[in-house]
Amino acid sequence: MGGNTGVVVVGGGYAGVMAANRLARAEGVEVTLVNARAEFVQRIRLHQVAAGTHEAVVEYRKVLSEKVRLVVDSVMEIDARGRVLRTEKGVIGYDYLVYAVGSGAAGQQAPGVREFAYPLASLEEAREVRTALEAAPDARVAVVGGGATGIEIAAELAEQGRRVTLICGGVLNPYLHEKGRETIRERLVGLGVTVLDEAKAAEVTETSVRLADGTLIPSQITVWTAGFSVPDLALRSGLSTDATGRLITDDTLTSIDDEHIVAAGDAAAPKDASYRMGCQSAVQLGPQAAETVLSRIAGTQPAPIHVAFAGQCLSLGRRTGVFQISERDDTAKASHLRGRTGGVVKEFICRSTVWQLAFEARKAGKSKNSKGQGEKPKDSHRQQPVAAH
Ligand SMILES: Cc1cc2nc3c(=O)[nH]c(=O)nc-3n(C[C@H](O)[C@H](O)[C@H](O)COP(=O)(O)OP(=O)(O)OC[C@H]3O[C@@H](n4cnc5c(N)ncnc54)[C@H](O)[C@@H]3O)c2cc1C
Fold first, then answer.
1. What is the pLDDT of residue 368?
2. How many whole angstroms from 36 Cα to the centroid of ligand 1?
3. Which residue from 33, 35, 45, 91 has its CB within 8 A of the most atoms of ligand 1, so it is best to mutate?
4. Please, what are the domains in the chain?
5. H helix intervals, 9-146
6. How confident is the model over 18-47, as pLDDT tens digits?
7. Lowest-pLDDT range, 24-33, 293-302, 370-379?
8. How far is the CA of 91 from the centre of ligand 1 (A)?
9. Which of 21, 146, 152, 229 could link 47 by a cystine bridge, Cβ 3.0 to 4.6 Å?
C-alpha cells in the first residue's frame, strides 16, 4: 500500500459511505470501499420503489469521495488473523477494516413465507413487489408487520386504490407515542387500510394469510416486513456476534476480538448501547467508526460513541406523513408533526440524507493528517448532525 495505511470498508450503505468519506479526509490513508453492487441504494425509499413512486438508486460518484477506491465485489469471509478478505473475485488485504454490511429481510418466520410472501428490505425485493403489483392491478394486498416499513408500504398502496390489510403482529408500531399512533391509524383507516392490531400471521398461501386464531385474510400479494436480519459474514468469520449476528463491539465501535476491525450501522452491536436499526443511527455511526480507526492509526485512544435521535418520520402516502418527535435517547415524546407538514418533512429527510453523504464526500478534499498533526475537523463526531428518520 505504498507506506499508506490501508482501510477497507465493507458495505457501501449509509454507514459505510459516511465512514469511507470521513476516512478519505485523512492523509496517509488509502480507503477502499467494497460493495456488492455498483450503485448506492437509498434503502429508505424502497417502499416507494415497490409502489412505483420513486427510484432508490444513486450513483456512487454523487455520494462517495473520489479519493475512495470502489470495488464491486462480495466479501465471503474475513480472515482477521491474516487481515485479508476473501471475496467472490479474489482477496483484499487491509490494515483496518470497517464492517458496515447493513441488514436485510428477516428469515422465514411462518410456513409459506419463503414461497408466497414478498420481503421488502433490498432493492431487488422492492422491484419484485413492484412487478407483482403491476401484473395484478386488482389483487388484494396483505402487509405483514406493523412497524415503519409496513405502515409506509400499506399507506402507499392504499393511496393508489389497492385493498390493503395491515397485519401488525402486536401494537401498531410500538416505537410511537400513543398520540402519534392514533394519528397514523386515522390516516391509514382514512386511506381504506384495514388495520389488524394484535393479529399474528401464522401461514401464508398463494391467496391468503392465515392468522394465529385461524381467520383467513384474502391476499394475492403478501408483503412481509416483519423485522430485519443481518448478514452472517461476521458469524461465519468466527468473530463475536450477538444473537442476531451483529458484530459485538466496545463503546468505540471496535470489535471485542480485534482492534483492527471496527463496525458501524445496522450490523454493529455496540456493547451496552442498543440502537434501533436505521439510517438515522447509521449516518452517525459511520463517521464515528472512521474516527476510531484514525485514532488507532494515530496511536491515540478513540472516543466513546454518541448517537442522538430526533424521532421517527413516516410517509403516509405521497401527500402526508407523521414525524414522531423523540427525546435524544430515542424515547417517543407526546408531540408529533402530521398531515402535509409531516409529508414534507419526510421528503426533506429522504433528500437530505443523500446531501449529507455528498457533503461529507466533498469535504474529503480538505485533508486531515491521520497522525494527529492536522486540524481537528470542526464537525468531529460529537457534533454530528442528527437526521431524523
Ligand atoms: C423500506 C424501508 C424503509 C426504511 N425507512 C427508514 C427510515 O425512514 N428511517 C430510517 O432510519 N431507516 C429506515 N430504514 C432502515 C434503513 O434503510 C437501514 O437501517 C439502513 O439502510 C442501514 O444502513 P447501513 O449502512 O447499516 O446498511 P445498508 O444501507 O443496508 O447498506 C449495507 C451495504 O452493504 C452491502 N453488503 C452487504 N454484505 C456485503 C458483503 N458481504 N460484501 C460487500 N457488500 C456487502 C450491501 O449491498 C449494502 O450496499 C428503512 C428500510 C427499508 C427497507
1. 52
2. 12
3. 35
4. 5-103+230-306+354-365 (3.50.50.60), 107-224 (3.50.50.60)
5. 14-23, 46-51, 60-63, 113-116, 123-135
6. 999 999 999 999 999 999 999 999 999 999
7. 370-379
8. 24
9. 152
